[in-house]
Amino acid sequence: MAVANKAPTAPTVSMDKLVSLCKRRGFVFPSSEIYGGFNGVWDYGPLGTELRANVKAAWWKDFVHSREDIVGLDSGILASPRVWEASGHLQNFTDPMVECKNCKHRFRADHIDLDKNCPVCGKKDWSDIRQFNTMFKTFVGPVEDDASVAYLRPETCQAIFVNFRLVQQAMRKKLPFGIAQIGKAFRNEITTGNFIFRLRELEQMELEYFVRPGEDERTFDEWLLRDVEWLTRLGVRREMLHLYEHPAEKRSHYSKRTVDIEYDFPFGRSELWGHANRGDFDLTQHKNASGEELEYFDDESKEHVVPYVIEPSLGVDRTMLVLLLEAFDEQPDKDGIRTVLHFHPRVAPIKVAVLPLVKKDEGLVSKARALFDELRSELTAQYDETSTVGRRYRRQDEIGTPWCVTVDGQTLEDGTVTVRDRDSMEQVRLPSAEVLPVLQRRLRQPWSRPE
Ligand code: GAP
Questions:
Q1: Which residue's CA is the closest to the ligand 1 atom numbered 21?
Q2: What is the whole-number distance in angstroms between the Cα of residue 89 and the centre of ligand 1?
Q3: What was the pLDDT predicted at 5?
């Protein structure tokens, strides 16, 4: 696979504009803003919470529920510190750190050019580079001593390895099979930034796919293709995605091969979805450190096998950022600029809005409320009766609602309503009783981003 060139290919919306929309419309808020903020953590507002839940549900449905060979796990954020000793994280989960001796700012040494001056104070007085372990430490129990040190997990996958045999036996899985997990992870990143791209508190969707040694390379390539396709089906333009093959010296300590699916962010091309061939590193480490059998017994050949692991590992927050960037669109129209988020309907926070044409007509309002109640029993829905219909459409466009249903005078006569499509802006009249089944069908259909 070709090594990607690092120059971004296509400009998207500026980060400032996106951050401001996300705050104004309730997607993402800066953490602890009333206390001056808290670096590396963001809070998800009402619509961000829905978007996030939909991203996780889509991943879980497509990679767990739709497959017979993959099952789920939900493990603790805290675990025995022996896990991190065996996994190599205590020793190797480090980033190179350098300090500007003049202004005391710290940077990741691999993220800046040390031949140049400090980007903060403009002087050139660098410290030596030292390795900084990015695991968050805490204490378990009332005494804060060395014996009670524990770590917040920096990746979700270790519990999958530790529980490998329990899951395999409980579910009677045969190779090849996978274990998936979604959950929070914590990394004391030296520098954070670019909104929800690099966080200290993040969430991952990780899959560990166990195969027989020898089947790993083919399986790796299959997952890479499948994952690119999954992103494009969710509406990410194929030309914005690139494969980056890590050279051997840049790979993590556990990896035989690493290929990132990268995305052209407004701040440059960067990792979205890591893929690693972890070989038998993790199971062997945990087997040796714990003394427990972590092998797979093949009933047919009567052999014990330590499976190889292919790991696609995707950040929930980065996926949200990519979906927001891809969805953002501005179209000049007669009233100014129409801002639209073209989300795939599957991930759109609100699926449908019900808009009564006039709010003072009791008959019309009661029809609209009845339809709203019916729709929200199955779909996320909003009821909006304030200001002109045009403004209400705009409000829904700006949060990416795929369909708006208008209830008007004709509804009282013939029971039909208007369904307006966010992407084409086409309006069709339908009997009100057909709206829910029609939208449910549309939600299951493939969707493509308008050009
Ligand atoms: N278990 C392997 C692993 O954790 P990784 O490449 O360090 O590999 C996997 O992380 C994914 O998690 C990344 O591709 C990215 O999407 C997400 N991720 C990692 N660090 C992150 C951070 N500081 N903030 C937000 N997302 C992050």
A1: 198
A2: 14
A3: 39
